[in-house]
Amino acid sequence: MSNAPAQRVPESEKITINLGPVDLGRIDLLVQEGFYSNRSDFIRTAIRSQLATEGEVLSRSIARHTLELGLRDITRADLEAARAAGETLHIRVLGLARIAPDVPAELAAAVIGSLTILGALQAPAEVKAALKDRIR
């Protein structure tokens, strides 16, 4: 057994931000009035509040970036729905990704931001050509 101390993973990451004097003064006033214990407390609270506000968008984005196992069929309807919602898809598959033969290359190029395949891709030649710089 080694007597070396275990490597500790930091619980937080330090960041540096630049604020104008007026914003900094407002933060200091809130700290002085007791709303926050210090500047860092205010900034952490503000960041958490903003992340909570954007929670649904973050959840959708995380779900879109998740690696899928097995077979992933990508249909024309899937891509049209994503385009209608203004979404860009980042598809990650471990297994087989299959893009339907009726998917036009223009639609695939408009909606698929990246395609990471650990396995195989089945798609029309025109779609593969349209996505060639996005396939990893």
TrEMBL record:
A Pfam family annotated for this UniProt entry: RHH_8
Signal sequence, renumbered to the chain: none
Alphabetical GO biological process terms: regulation of DNA-templated transcription
Protein name, as recorded: Arc/MetJ-type ribon-helix-helix transcriptional regulator
